[in-house]
């Protein structure tokens, strides 16, 4: 066990798997010698050579297309898109190609070995092109798995599971926690299973659901609620596609209430999908309408970032509104 | 190392390089009458290879003629022909090793035949029956077969181009003496994926052959409205790539160019671009009507350059085939295709249970639940779902 931040944990996961699997490659913009703009891939080129860890030209669609080709021919590519905001040029290769490779070919070919890592989210004064949370776009794509870790420990275990999963995975890394999240992280190899939510804190009055960097935010709101005499059950979804309906429904049946928090804009956000499913699964158990605490339906702003964010105070208010409905 | 990869010639008066400064010769070996140019250097070809190519030519002609008719009769929903481009496709695939991976666009079924795809396998795909390797999930002509190293065709244009760079890089790292070959039209070269794929291959020194069938039209858009500049070959040079332009209706020229391209790509672990100048004699697809955008005269002019006929004349001169042999091949394949159609039409559609397979490696619980709900619904309204109701 060692104290590690999220970048170190990610770096260790990549290192461990590259040692184990000589078909694994790591590439993207600036990921080679420099180790990526956030330094997640530091030292990998020195250790594994330029053939297996390299810079690519500035072409997100090229990175994703190249990765698809590699994976379709038996390799394990882990491609980095420098910021999730820049994943859109690669959208076609991810949505139309990676996600559908196995299905459209009748499993003659698949890109199961593919993992795309990308830093997402706000809170770093990055303005709209360095702050977006585009996870919902990918949750509608059958064939992709979408994974978001909340801290260093989770990042290592979930990333190892993602790379070894036999399906293409888009792995969103909460960049504002890259250095801020420091945990005890085992040095050895471990996996956290995909598709399973984690109940972080038991409670009886309301279920509070989040993923990635927002888990820390809603934790604060749950602490505030505790002061106000409200018992929150806190769940980290961890995998958004396919998501753990059972765990969330089980909790909501117990508490009768649900508050969902995410950074992305409200409209069309993944909270909408969760709300619709949970009201169907738990209709007779619900004591109040499912609440959503999300970003506004605007591009992510620079100056008003603090106001825009679905922060602990907004979440606390939603928790109280849910309980007092 | 920075800024070292450009050539330096100094001038002291602003002088621009014009389009005409770049002359790209076109490789021609066979003449219209089936004789070869006097100074032509022939590819490596013998009677056996010639026969295999010619056989696939005639099969492809028959397949295209019969299946276009089948589409017109409403027996299949869609079709695309290779007509006019057989030399581009077969001359190139015949230069490859069976371990070379083919990433096709949608007009390269002749290559699949050359690799050994059976007549029945074509029909099963075209009729989307339960024998279709693609399990009835894509439109007709989206073939793919792992055993023949022919990746399944995807409809979005040009997506196979950067993928081919990735496949080529995997062959390099797996230390296989093979290449990836990527087919596309000059229209697809307008997509961002073309730039992305060529640039990636060049920078990362990937053994891949980018094979452009410059066939004159992207659906209805002629080349003048598709790109400016000196064809697609000039782009290859821009990417620092070994490049050649060939007469795409000349089987021997395409074969010669591709044999050398392959040898170069393997030896130097580097990409090559081949631009084959050809003409799409047929419509873009069965949904297209070229009379709306090109003249009969233009089509008649290109009929004179029929690549199959030109190759046949050469074979006859070599004493390797006769008109009678050709007729015998035609009739053999007509019978074979018709028989396969009859078989394929009687094979049922893939079972509804297949719908949720291959989305992920294992169907997730929600998907299983959705299938169960669907089956219960079909059972309740069997007349509304005649294809599946009787086979739940």
From TrEMBL, chain A:
Keywords: Oxidoreductase, Thiamine pyrophosphate
Residues annotated as domain Transketolase-like pyrimidine-binding: 4-180
Pfam families according to UniProt: Transket_pyr (PF02779), Transketolase_C (PF02780)
Cofactor requirement: thiamine diphosphate
Enzyme class: oxidoreductase
EC code(s) of this entry: 1.2.4.4
Protein name: 3-methyl-2-oxobutanoate dehydrogenase (2-methylpropanoyl-transferring)
Organism: Shewanella avicenniae
TrEMBL record, chain B:
Documented EC number(s): 1.2.4.4
Class of the enzyme per the UniProt entry, highest EC level: oxidoreductase
Reactions the enzyme catalyzes: N(6)-[(R)-lipoyl]-L-lysyl-[protein] + 3-methyl-2-oxobutanoate + H(+) = N(6)-[(R)-S(8)-2-methylpropanoyldihydrolipoyl]-L-lysyl-[protein] + CO2
InterPro entries: Alpha-ketoacid_DH_E1_comp, DH_E1, THDP-binding
Assigned keywords, A-Z: Oxidoreductase, Thiamine pyrophosphate
PANTHER family the record matches: 2-OXOISOVALERATE DEHYDROGENASE SUBUNIT ALPHA, MITOCHONDRIAL
Family (UniProt): Belongs to the BCKDHA family.
Protein name: 2-oxoisovalerate dehydrogenase subunit alpha
Organism expressing this protein natively: Shewanella avicenniae
């Amino acid at each position: 066990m060692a104290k590690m931040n999220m970048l170190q944990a990610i770096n260790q996961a990549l290192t461990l798997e590259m040692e184990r699997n000589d078909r694994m490659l790591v590439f993207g913009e600036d990921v080679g010698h420099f180790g990526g703009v956030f330094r997640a891939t530091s030292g990998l080129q020195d250790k594994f050579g330029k053939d297996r860890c390299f810079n690519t030209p500035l072409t997100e669609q090229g990175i994703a297309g190249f990765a698809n080709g590699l994976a379709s021919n038996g390799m394990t590519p882990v491609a980095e898109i420098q910021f999730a905001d820049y994943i859109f040029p690669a959208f076609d290769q991810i949505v139309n190609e990676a996600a559908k490779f196995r299905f459209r070919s009748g499993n003659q070919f698949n890109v199961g070995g593919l993992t795309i890592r990308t830093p997402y989210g706000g809170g770093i004064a990055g303005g709209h092109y360095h702050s977006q949370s585009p996870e919902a776009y990918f949750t509608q794509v059958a064939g992709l798995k979408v994974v978001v870790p909340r801290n260093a420990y989770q990042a290592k275990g979930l990333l190892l599971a993602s790379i070894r999963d036999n399906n293409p995975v888009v792995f969103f890394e909460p960049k504002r926690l890259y250095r801020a999240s420091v945990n005890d992280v085992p040095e050895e190899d471990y996996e956290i299973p995909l598709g399973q939510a984690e109940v972080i804190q038991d409670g009886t009055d309301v279920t509070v659901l989040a993923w990635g960097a927002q888990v820390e935010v809603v934790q604060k709101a749950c602490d505030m609620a505790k002061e106000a005499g409200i018992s929150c059950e806190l769940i980290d979804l961890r995998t958004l596609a396919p998501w753990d309906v059972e765990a969330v429904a089980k909790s909501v049946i117990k508490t009768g209430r649900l508050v969902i928090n995410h950074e992305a804009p409200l409209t069309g956000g993944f909270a909408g999908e969760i709300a619709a499913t949970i009201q169907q699964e738990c209709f007779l158990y619900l004591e109040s309408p499912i609440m959503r605490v999300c970003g506004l339906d605007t591009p992510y702003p620079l100056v008003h970032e603090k106001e825009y964010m679905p922060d602990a105070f907004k979440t606390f208010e939603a928790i109280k509104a849910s309980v007092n409905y | 190392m920075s800024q070292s990869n450009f050539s330096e010639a100094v001038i002291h008066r602003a002088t621009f390089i014009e389009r005409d400064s770049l002359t790209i010769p076109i490789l021609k070996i066979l003449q219209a009458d089936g004789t070869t140019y006097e100074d032509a250097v022939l590819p490596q070809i013998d009677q056996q290879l010639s026969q295999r190519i010619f056989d696939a030519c005639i099969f492809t002609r028959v397949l295209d003629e019969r299946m276009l008719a089948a589409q017109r009769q409403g027996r299949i929903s869609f079709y695309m022909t290779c007509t006019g481009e057989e030399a581009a496709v077969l001359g190139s695939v015949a230069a490859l090793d069976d371990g070379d991976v083919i990433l096709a666009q949608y007009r390269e079924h002749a290559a699949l035949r050359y690799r050994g795809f059976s007549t029945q396998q074509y029909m099963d795909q075209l009729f989307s029956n339960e024998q279709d390797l693609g399990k009835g999930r894509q439109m007709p002509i989206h073939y793919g077969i792992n055993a023949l190293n022919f990746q399944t065709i995807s409809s979005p244009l040009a997506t196979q181009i950067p993928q081919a760079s990735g496949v080529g890089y995997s062959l390099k790292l797996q230390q296989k003496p093979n290449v990836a070959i990527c087919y596309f039209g000059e229209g697809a070269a307008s997509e961002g994926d073309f730039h992305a794929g060529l640039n990636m291959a060049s920078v990362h020194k990937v053994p891949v052959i980018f094979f452009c069938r410059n066939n004159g039209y992207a659906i209805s858009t002629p080349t003048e409205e598709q790109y400016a500049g000196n064809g697609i070959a000039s782009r290859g040079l821009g990417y620092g790539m070994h490049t050649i332009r060939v007469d795409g209706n000349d089987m021997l020229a395409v074969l010669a160019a591709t044999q050398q391209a392959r040898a170069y790509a393997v030896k130097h672990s580097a990409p090559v671009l081949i631009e084959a100048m050809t003409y799409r004699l047929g419509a873009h697809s069965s949904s297209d009507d070229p009379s709306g955008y090109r003249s009969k005269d233009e089509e008649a002019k290109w009929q004179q350059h029929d690549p199959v006929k030109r190759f046949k004349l050469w074979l006859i001169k070599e004493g390797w085939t006769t008109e009678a042999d050709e007729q015998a091949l035609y009739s053999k394949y007509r019978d074979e295709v018709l028989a396969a159609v009859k078989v394929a039409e009687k094979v049922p559609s893939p079972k509804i249970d297949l719908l949720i397979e291959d989305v992920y490696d294992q169907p997730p619980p929600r998907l299983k639940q959705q299938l169960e709900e669907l089956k219960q619904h079909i059972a309740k309204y069997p007349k509304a779902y005649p294809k599946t109701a009787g086979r739940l």
